[in-house]
């Protein structure tokens, strides 16, 4: 949802012009915004003020959390001359929204983030577009500053992605990783996690979410993989009632897929006699991982009544 707050009759005309261009727009005037401001900031993906920048700053200040949580905030003067990206320019999408709104209003976009000014492909914007996780967010500023200053950076990629840096150097003092593997680097570094790992899970009845998560984590550590690169998880349809699987889905924030007996048995894999006698399929974790897609990189990891298989999308 985009919320637009205006204070004058001039602002009202601009607000209604913008409403025609965007889906799910809520309009607030000087009489209606005040009692709703907390909910506006909490529930909006973007907040547009048609006002002075000072008014916008004072109104949003107490609601700010972090660049990873705050909505995009832009400001438009009520003459529709300038559109200013005020808050969450990259991850929140304010810079992109600023350009779009400026184009609609035939106004001048005002963007002050340094990477944009110097035409640098910002790491956080790249990660957002590609659906990657920024693992150690505290290092984002380090890498961004180095790029702005044209310093050398060691760029390490384990997946095929279109991202490059003109001053990359293996001997650099800092590093940028785009990888699904564990990173052991004593240099200051930033890690981007591509969502490329598909996980098949077999488990006994009644396994707890904590046990399942611990086994999954152990399997990944032993195989030099990062949980943050999991794209989706899957199991046999007879396991739909297992609360641990649904709990894992929520904890990882990834899709959970269930495959039928026929789908699983179409996958050629080694038969587990116990599993076959119990539920009529040759195996669960491996075929489920392969059905999700990719190359099998962890055939089977077994512990505490749980079996984990992992495929890599390439």
UniProtKB/TrEMBL annotation:
Entry's Gene Ontology BP terms: cobalamin biosynthetic process
Domain Cobalamin synthesis G N-terminal: 37-116
Domain CobE/GbiG C-terminal, first and last residues per copy: 198-310
Cobalamin biosynthesis central region domain boundaries: 122-194
This protein's name: Cobalamin biosynthesis protein CbiG
Species this protein is from: Thermobrachium celere DSM 8682
